[in-house]
Amino acid sequence: MKKIHWKIVNAALWIEIVLSYFLPFKVTNDFQYQAGFPMAFISVYDTKPAISPFMSMHFNPIGFVLDVFVIYLVIWGLIKLYQKKRTP
What we know:
16% strand
């Protein structure tokens, strides 16, 4: 089993967080907004202003980990492809 490249994992985590802020939200049922790429990992519910924002959110840790894993694989594959093209 190969070791984990922690720099790539760190980059994948940051990319996932940044993408969730910059990509548009997906609206479902006219009161639920979902964010995350490639799968939604956070849901925000449209509620009354008197309710705390933390009470109107749902965080899906499994979706977050799967998103980070997918981004990790993409970055790792791009690095391997770059190394293969660079060496004769």
